Amino acid sequence: MSRRFLMALGSAVLALSIAACSGEGAGGGGDTADKKPTDLTIGVSMPTQTSERWIADGNAVKEKLQAKGYKVDLQYAGDDIPTQSQQIDQMITQGADVLIIASIDGTALSGQLQAAAQAKIPVISYDRLILGSPNVDFYVSFDNYKVGVAQATALLVGLGLQNKDGSKGTATGPFTIELFAGSLDDNNTQYFFGGAMDTLKPFFDNGTLKVKSGQTKIEQAATLRWQQETAQKRMEDLLTSSYNDGSTVDGVLSPYDGISRGIITALQNAGYGAGKKKLPVVTGQDAEIASIKLINDGVQNSTVFKDTRLLAEQAAIAAEAFLQEKQPQANDTTTYNNKVKVVPAYLLPIQTVFKDDIKPVLVDSGYWTAEEVAAGQAKK
């Protein structure tokens, strides 16, 4: 009997046991509209603390909910799927009234969500859509297809093929680029890569852009768990295998700042950024402070800013609606099919940040301070 089968069987048995005792105080059990916020608990499950983005998300969600008077059980899973499953199981058995979940693997939580449904606990999928379960009640995120479009557009702007206002740039190419994608177990990866490839397609078709390695499929470009080290290793391999003839990379499509930093490290170790071998245009996402410093220093080209303060606020609004036994307001009821149902969603806007945008978009809004940008570190 395989280890995977035993794990699945154990999860199913636990889900059934939680469901069986749901009438005896396990989980929220509904009937929350007449309760005081101080009598209600919201479980918040975040994937990892290795990314400053998820630390910021967790803290922001907790602060928004606590400001409304709710108790919050915030847990980080260390990018370990069994740990996240166990943490959510525990939240259910300890009587959470709503769950807010940013999943590590969007397909791995069906047993936990079934247990939550049996216990009448609403589930809000946070930024990463949970797949394969009918028990996802709401989704809060950004327009993830537009994130991919923004990243590809930033690449075109950085190469000089397009101006910020959308008009045609002065550069003609041809340019050589490489493509990176996120983790395939994160549903957002498909939207990011799809938006980017749709935007770049005309430039591939007319020969202005070329992927020298030939690795243009999402499966080839994917970066498991969004890991910086994994991205660095792949970029090193690409340079060794495809650029050992003296040719250079002009641009790299990167979907996330941590991946971008791994790519940049590999490039710098290969001599890019020194002498005549200038660094390629490298995109990003999440406005992590280490990458904002790189953008400010002219090393990384850009990032896509997704204001986690707004996302946390929307998650808190949705949670409060469920606790008042109302349906949260959605602004998208057609796009996000989790392979079982279309999940009602609230999508937030995004902003592309180049060097000139750091002060007006990030500093003036209070997201980062000028001192943090200069240091490349968030204040504790």
Write up this protein.
It is a single chain. The chain has 380 residues and is an alpha/beta fold. It contains 13 helices and twelve strands. It has helices spanning 3-20, 52-67, 81-93, 110-118, 144-159, 188-205, 218-221, 228-242, 257-269, 289-296, 308-323, 358-363, 370-375, and strands spanning 41-46, 71-76, 98-101, 123-126, 138-142, 175-179, 209-211, 251-253, 281-282, 303-305, 345-348, 351-353. The strands form three sheets. The protein has a six-stranded parallel β-sheet with strand order 2-1-3-4-5-11, sandwiched between helices. The chain has a four-stranded parallel β-sheet with strand order 7-6-8-9, with helices on both faces. Strands 10-12 form a two-stranded antiparallel sheet. Helix 6 links the parallel strand 6 (175-179) and strand 7 (209-211). It is elongated.
Distance linking N and C termini: 48 Å
DSSP helical segment count: 13
Order of helices and strands: HEHEHEHEEHEHEHHEHEHEHEEHH
What is the overall shape?
A: elongated
Beta-strand proportion: 5-15%
**Would you tell me the overall average pLDDT?**
92
> Mind summarizing the main beta sheet?
6 strands, parallel
| Poorly predicted tracts of residues | 1-27
